[in-house]
Amino acid sequence: MSVLEDMACFKRNGDIESLKKSLEQAVAKFLSETAKSRAASSYYKDIYFAGQNKTTEEICTIVNNLEYVRRSLAEYDDEHMTEHMSTATDESARQLVRGALGTLDARSTRAAAPLSARARPPLRKAVFHLAWSPDTLPTTQAITPLLEFLDQHLSSLNTWLLPRAFTRALAGCWSAVLKEVSSQADAGGAERPRVYHHRLREALDLLADFFHAEGKGLPMHEVHNMEWGRVEQRMQYHQAPTEELLEIWLADRLAEQMRTPLPSPYGSILVRVYFNHDSLCVEVLSARDVIPLDPNGLSDPFVVLELLPKRLFPKAHEQSTNVQKKTLNPIWDECFEFTVSLESCRSPQAALSLSVWDRDVLTADDFAGEAFVALARVPGVNSHAPPDPLRPLELPLMQLHDRNHPILQILESRTTDKMAIDFVKKQKLRFAEQ
């Protein structure tokens, strides 16, 4: 009898232990084949299949074998496991088969990985030529060599692989394309921000259509996956001027402020903010549980106030509180005024930045945390805000954590842009200790 016939017999007899043993043996037999692909992967990864069809077919054979087993188990699951599901034995057998199916899917993906890895060098070359084609060459023509390469590569795989296995390989190739396009976008840096990145952005849409193939390729929701979203966002950032990126960063910090609950590991700050006549009034009252930054387990905290973005408040300069010595719960009770227009405060981008620092005499001041207030929401600016402007607002303090944030990476690449470099330098002081 075949392995699957043995399994059916064991299930009918309620012999769950024999069923489990038979299933494990069947899966182990076929999973052992993937060891060949893993052992050979270091050899495969730098060789394209042109002139090496034999090795590519061997990988496809392993992937297809795994798919045959998966297909048989899936058929067995449909035909046998849904009949008379009334006992614990039935349910246990069903879980075993479902677990094996998941394992086979994972191993099939791993076995197919060398197929896309081997295509990376010529793919990288094709994307490079796309990006650095003459500016006068339309994107639809500049992308032709890349599409021809992909068509040749995928046509061969489509010939050798079963449909489900080919779809998996197609998804792996799409992932490789996204990585190469993203890498090439970053390599361009700030040298050719307009034409260079605009072309890659157009190419990304053409490539998405290619892999979707009018419904015959990857489903559009798999084409527009999270990885695609990250690459698209990165493209938009590359094309944006520095001032616009700073405003996107500020919007992200405001959103993070709204999501951050109390209590915060970095403490909180208590303020009043309201618009009165021609001035924005800010009362910095106190803070509590500020992180200790001095050797004595305390801090010497002070607060720097700033209105952002600068294009809305070009004449509003930074202001700061006095320093409170040796405390984690400072009380300032200080009032500040910014002479600004009501119209500027009503802008959705307008914000008050409050950063808490520890004063050091011999070294640079240490960053303790920051908080942001959207000015459009404060009393006197927003007619729907609480009528009592004297009610204080407690804000959780935050620090930065993502050192690989795309906006920071892109701004850091703009080495001739003083605004970008100064901003990155300022933000690098605000990262939490790892």
From TrEMBL:
<feature type="domain" description="C2">
    <location>
        <begin position="261"/>
        <end position="388"/>
    </location>
</feature>
<dbReference type="Pfam" id="PF00168">
    <property type="entry name" value="C2"/>
</dbReference>
<comment type="similarity">
    <text>Belongs to the unc-13 family.</text>
</comment>
<keyword id="KW-0268">Exocytosis</keyword>
<dbReference type="InterPro" id="IPR035892">
    <property type="entry name" value="C2_domain_sf"/>
</dbReference>
<dbReference type="InterPro" id="IPR057984">
    <property type="entry name" value="PATROL1_C"/>
</dbReference>
<dbReference type="InterPro" id="IPR000008">
    <property type="entry name" value="C2_dom"/>
</dbReference>
<dbReference type="Pfam" id="PF25761">
    <property type="entry name" value="TPR_PATROL1"/>
</dbReference>
<dbReference type="InterPro" id="IPR052095">
    <property type="entry name" value="UNC-13_domain"/>
</dbReference>
<dbReference type="InterPro" id="IPR014772">
    <property type="entry name" value="Munc13_dom-2"/>
</dbReference>
<protein>
    <recommendedName>
        <fullName>C2 domain-containing protein</fullName>
    </recommendedName>
</protein>
<feature type="domain" description="MHD2">
    <location>
        <begin position="140"/>
        <end position="249"/>
    </location>
</feature>
